[in-house]
Specification:
By secondary structure, the chain is an alpha/beta fold. About 40% of the residues lie in helices and about 25% in strands. Strands 1, 2, 3, 4, 5 and 6 form a 6-stranded mixed beta sheet that branches. A two-stranded antiparallel sheet has the order 7-8. The structure holds flavin mononucleotide.
Length: about 170
């Protein structure tokens, strides 16, 4: 099976998952900006990965707009976010972002990333700062969450790519 992995990443976590998947499945790896010049007709499977931003998923519309022309291929999307895998909000967010009416033929996965303030563009830093100060103003402050979101952390793990690779290796 010829596989393409396309990723969109600002601070590196989604790129890392894309690299892990490509290595494990011998896939071709493209950043989203490079993917715009690629002819995907030659691929049997396409994996799209991007990161969660304010409840949405960056560039998901780009992927959605290609689904019709990729009909018949094995299609996988993975979302990378700051939340741990076990957080119940994660499954709810996936449901909201991948409605069955648009993504019926897409297998969707979540891979925990983290926060990387060192690599974050200034606009994202400002947004995160605003979010944290909003949390601080709440009557019932969640001190753990405030501390957690105030500095960089990394909760990536190769184990999260296993179900994706399994699906790509199935006949
Ligand atoms: C402005 C902003 C909004 C974010 N919103 C969410 C969110 O709604 N849910 C979530 O799980 N993570 C959220 N994150 C965290 C990113 O999804 C996380 O840092 C991700 O690993 C970034 O991926 P990247 O390193 O590939 O750019 C947000 C980050 C930023 C900067």
């Amino acid at each position: 099976m010829k596989i393409a992995v396309i990723y969109h990443s600002d601070t590196g976590f989604t790129k890392r998952y894309g690299q892990w998947i490509a290595e494990a499945t011998k896939a071709d790896l493209f950043s989203l900006s490079d993917a715009k010049q690629v002819d995907f007709n030659v691929y049997d499977a396409i994996v799209f990965g991007s990161w969660a931003c304010a409840g949405g998923i960056r560039k998901l519309n780009w992927f959605k707009n290609h689904l019709k022309q990729w009909e018949g291929k094995r299609l996988i999307a993975f979302c990378v976010g700051a939340n741990p895998y076990e957080n119940p909000d994660v499954q709810e967010a996936l449901k909201q972002n991948f409605p069955v009416k648009d993504f019926a033929n897409v297998n969707v996965f979540y891979c925990p990333g983290g926060l990387n303030y060192e690599e974050m563009p200034p606009t994202s830093k400002v947004m995160m700062k605003m979010f944290v100060s909003m949390l601080k103003k709440k009557k019932q402050r969640d001190e753990d969450m405030i501390r957690w979101l105030s500095s960089s952390y990394d909760i990536t793990d190769k184990k999260y790519i296993e179900p994706i690779c399994k699906l790509l290796k199935e006949e």
